[in-house]
Amino acid sequence: MKSIDEAKQSNYRYLPPKNELYSPDLPIITIIIDCYYKLDLVKQSVQSILNQDYHNVELLLIDNGAEDLVSDYIRQVYEKDKNIALIKFKVNQFSWEDVPKVVTVCWNSGVLHSRGDIIGHLSYDDMLSLNCVDRMAKLFIENDKCVTAAPLPVSIDINGNVNAHLDFSKSNSRPRYIDGKELALNLIEGNKRSLFSAPGGVLFIRKDIIIETGGFDRAADTTQLVKFAVNGDSGFDPQARLFWRHHGDQLNKLAKKKGLVECNSLKDVIKNDGVVEIWTKLFTKKQVNSLHKFVKLQSINEGITVSTEALRDKNIIRFFVSLRNVIRKCPATFFHVIFFSFLEIVKMFFEKISKYR
Predict the structure, then answer these.
(1) Is pTM beyond 0.85 here?
(2) Are strands 233-245 and 127-128 parallel, antiparallel or unpaired?
(3) Fold designation for 3-247
(4) How many CB atoms lie within 10 A of CB 336?
(5) What DSSP assignment string belongs to 1-68?
(6) What is the per-residue pLDDT across 316-350, written as a single tens digit (0 to 9) for each?
(7) pLDDT, tens only, 10-59
């Protein structure tokens, strides 16, 4: 089953916009925000869309079984503002057993009901600069081969202050337009040219491409390049900003603290959403083989990263929990994880000796 089909089978209610006002001369861009908790951050995220200086924006809010205060707030926004759609799930779609399920169900439910020709997703705790959607729209308007586009990510702390030590401008050294296939190859070859480095799924994507390739999926950070971007040119405007918030309650950080491992997510998406078939049409046989190697390596690295971080934190319980999850979800990588965990212990031992010399 393709990723988008999970959304088609899920149980939610769609409420179309009560008031719509769009210019027929410009593309409509839909921004999807799925909401559950952290009302103060949700408000900042939503307001950054309502304040955009591009007027053909549809804001599609997803009430993912949200807390009462969050649910009330996004309902108020839906009732009073124009170009706002709302999707309501009675039951929260999140599960620690399947962390990325929210992406396939919530994001894709938004895609299925969106008015936009172009889709962007914004996390509840992130924000866009006021010029972001306008600059993204121009990238698509100026180049009819453009199928994806990105602003420059800017890291901020929980209070909205810029984290100066994280400078993504140095790891996004690409021109205004680049062939998306080049971005994907650069990724699987280890980002040797620093063309693209971004926290999470930051791309604005043509809706038809999302649907044709199976929808948003459980490996969205990677497939934004290897599944979506490869189908045409990818635009980039560093004057547009996506403010990515670093804080202790980020889902990926909480998942690692629990020893959770999503080591087969990318492998399953590559198979189920027909990514190999896409690559076979667009790339050489050697490049397709490189994709297979990359997917295998990603599966191994996921387990290694979670386990070795637990060792670094001296959390033995989390370490063994991570090993159990590796055995459950990707047993073929177990001995790789054990080997590199042993090397990490040796490394920590010699670091401690060096410290006391």
Answers:
(1) yes
(2) antiparallel
(3) Spore Coat Polysaccharide Biosynthesis Protein SpsA; Chain A (3.90.550)
(4) 17
(5) --HHHHHHTS--EEE--SS----TTS--EEEEEEE-S-HHHHHHHHHHHHT-S-S-EEEEEEEES--H
(6) 999 998 999 889 888 989 999 999 998 999 898 88
(7) 999 999 999 999 999 999 999 999 999 999 999 999 999 999 999 999 99
